[in-house]
Specification:
The complex is a heterodimer of chains A (265) and B (328).
Chain A (H helix, E strand, L loop, with lengths): L2 H10 L1 H25 L2 H8 L3 H6 L10 H10 L2 H24 L1 H6 L5 H30 L9 H28 L3 H24 L17 H6 L5 H24 L4
Helix pairs in contact in A: 1-8, 2-5, 2-6, 2-8, 6-8, 6-9, 6-10, 8-9, 8-12, 9-10, 9-12
Chain B lengths: L1 E12 L2 E12 L3 E5 L6 H8 L7 E6 L2 E2 L5 H4 L2 E4 L11 H11 L7 H7 L13 H13 L5 E5 L7 H16 L3 E6 L2 H7 L2 E6 L2 E7 H7 L1 E8 L6 H4 L4 E6 L4 E7 L3 H8 L4 E8 L2 H10 L4 H7 L16 H4 L4
Parallel strand pairs in B: 3-8, 3-9, 6-7, 7-8
Antiparallel strand pairs in B: 1-2, 1-4, 4-5, 9-10, 11-13, 11-14, 12-13
Helix pairs in contact in B: 11-12
Classes of the chains: A mainly alpha (265), B alpha/beta (328).
């Protein structure tokens, strides 16, 4: 790994990283603050009376809205969080390799005494660090501000949410990093990654309202993302951990291999 | 020992030819000019030498080591200035200097000197810099560490004549200090000015590799003769190596002679009474165009020649424009 490249990458991405993290902190705090007002009572009944298709859109079919987990899944972690962190990791990943190749700055990097493997490992390390930062920005505010609004997440629940959320981002972002190492253009890499995620989300949405479409769930990354269950202390599918970890680690390892062997100009 | 050596170096981008069967050798301590129009394969060759591209076939050796995609050890001893300067637009010149210094284990020994000679202000962001100033920054980044081998891809592009001259002087000083320079260019006057040896690449292939002096000396000459009596062009036209004879008047003929034929021309001229005789070496521009004449692209290349001998656009077949116009 190259410390110079690591510092340089963090320096160049500082604005994007800062704003995404700040946005997540603000959103998490906002949802925590709103919980006492809308997280129960008649509003909950209103939400639960909505068509399941609409609730499925916000990931709210698996857990009751009136519960803490149901509230956070529907209002925050079920859809908006997915969109925000997916955008964050896909944008970051796109610039990791393809963006720099297209911009021509990779030529400046590779003219220096640094190996391809070092470049790839450094970029991957920064990406993993960014994922952890996003997870912290997503979940720490709930833990910190929650007690003021009657929300108590146990340490085990918090760390499970943190770890599972991180693994989800690692899996989704890992695919985006792999695409970035393959393509010559960040826009194309990002577009393919976004299209892939959209496809997964639509498949999940359909399977939430149709038993016949559930055949795809076992390999659908989004289907395993059930933060409401974690918050409520309900069990989540154990294979979700493995699938996220395997997809994330395999994609990142493949990205390192691909970048080490490809033409970069 | 050759500092750079390639053997049958070939790079195809799919079906598009970048460079094909290129074999060249660059000895230590000289400026080697790599000459060709846009799209002829110059940049592709350089990127293969730096390990940025994987050759389709053949091999390259730089500083005694075979080039691989992970040739970071070799790159420690190389300074590179890209043809198309791409830097981090939001960062300053000083940030770039520190960035490169971080990779190379310290600030380059020539950094301050080069900043002064190019009158470059490193405090500005790259996006605020003119094309010429970006080029200056790229040159400083490439040369600051006084590398054993300097690979320059069209280094004076965008520079004013004063800064061009500054670049030439720095190159000459590096050579005097025992370094080697591989200079890719389509500016013939530049090559003629600083290079000792030149490789001419056409359609991705090396068509000539010679010392500049020899190339200029033996390839092409204009022989202008003023005779004491009227002389028809046919008097010189039948000589081997004379490809054209132009009568300027009934008494004056200008012959264009290719190859080592001066002796034969002089002996033929001496058969008549000569009032005046001038033998002039053709410039590198004309020699260069000669290499493209066979493919019928010389007129196009000639059109592309500007006053300073800048071959500024690709000649269709010479540059692989039908296949590799976008890939140099």
């Amino acid at each position: 790994m190259s410390w110079t490249l690591l510092r340089g990458t963090l320096h160049q991405r500082r604005a994007s990283m800062f704003w995404f993290c700040l946005g997540l902190v603000f959103y998490a705090w906002l949802m925590t603050w709103f919980y006492p007002q809308i997280g129960g009572g008649q509003y909950a009944q209103l939400i639960e009376s909505m068509p399941p298709e609409l609730l499925a859109l916000f990931g709210g079919t698996e857990v009751p809205f009136a519960s803490l987990g149901g509230y956070f899944q529907t209002e925050y972690l079920g859809l908006m969080w997915l969109i925000i962190v997916s955008a964050a990791v896909v944008l970051f990943a796109g610039r990791a390799f393809a963006g720099e190749i297209a911009a021509g700055t990779m030529e400046l990097v590779l003219a220096q005494p640094v190996s391809r493997v070092q470049v790839a490992l450094t970029r991957t390390t920064v990406f993993v660090g960014y994922v952890l930062l996003l997870a912290a920005a997503s979940f720490v505010p709930i833990q910190v501000f929650g007690p003021s609004y009657g929300i108590e997440l146990g340490a085990g629940t918090f760390w499970t949410l943190f770890a599972f959320g991180s693994l989800y981002m690692l899996a989704v972002g890992g695919i985006a990093v792999l695409l970035s190492s393959i393509f010559r253009d960040a826009g194309r890499a990002g577009a393919v990654a976004a299209a892939f995620l959209l496809l997964l989300w639509i498949a999940d949405l359909v399977s939430n309202v149709s038993e016949a479409a559930r055949f795809f769930d076992p390999i659908n990354l989004i289907s395993y993302w059930q933060p409401g269950k974690i918050i409520n202390g309900d069990p989540i599918a154990p294979e979700g951990w493995w699938i996220y970890a395997v997809v994330g680690v395999t994609s990142l390892a493949a990205a390192v291999v691909v970048f080490s062997r490809r033409d970069v100009a | 020992m050759d500092i750079i050596s390639t053997r049958n170096l070939t790079k195809f981008y799919g079906k598009t030819r970048g460079v094909e069967d290129l074999s060249l050798s660059v000895p230590a301590g000289i400026v080697y000019g790599f000459l060709g129009p846009n799209g002829s394969g110059k940049t592709t060759t350089i990127r293969c030498l730096l390990g940025m591209l994987r050759p389709t076939a053949g091999e390259a050796t730089v500083l005694g080591r075979r080039v691989t995609l992970d040739g970071s050890h070799v790159r420690r001893r190389i300074g590179y200035v890209a043809g198309e300067v791409r830097l981090y637009e939001r960062e300053t010149g000083r940030w770039h200097l520190d960035y490169v210094a971080g990779f190379r284990g310290g600030r380059g020994v020539l950094t301050d000197e080069l900043l002064e000679r190019f009158a470059f202000d490193p405090s500005k962001r790259v996006k605020e810099l003119s094309k010429g100033n970006k080029q200056k920054l790229a040159l400083i980044l490439g040369m600051a560490h006084d590398p054993e081998l300097l690979i320059l891809d069209e280094p004076t592009s965008g520079l004013d004549p004063l800064n061009q001259e500054a670049v030439y002087r720095v190159i000459e000083e590096r050579i005097a200090a025992g370094r080697t320079v591989f200079l890719s260019s389509h500016i013939l006057s530049e090559v003629e000015r600083v290079c000792e040896r030149v490789g001419i690449v056409r359609s991705g292939r090396l068509v000539a590799e010679e010392n500049v002096r020899d190339l200029l000396g033996k390839r092409l000459r204009h022989v202008e003769v003023r005779f004491a009596e009227p002389t028809p062009p046919a008097f010189l036209a039948d000589l081997p190596g004379v490809d054209s004879v132009t009568p300027l008047s009934a008494f004056v003929l200008v012959a264009r002679a290719k190859g080592d034929v001066v002796d034969q021309v002089v002996k033929r001229v001496a058969e008549r009474t000569v009032v005046d005789l001038t033998i002039q070496q053709a410039g590198l521009e004309e020699v260069f165009l000669e290499f493209y004449r066979d493919e019928g692209t010389a007129p196009e290349a000639a059109t592309a020649l500007s006053g300073n001998g800048d071959i500024s656009r690709p000649a269709t077949s010479a540059g692989g424009g039908d296949e590799g116009g976008e890939r140099e």
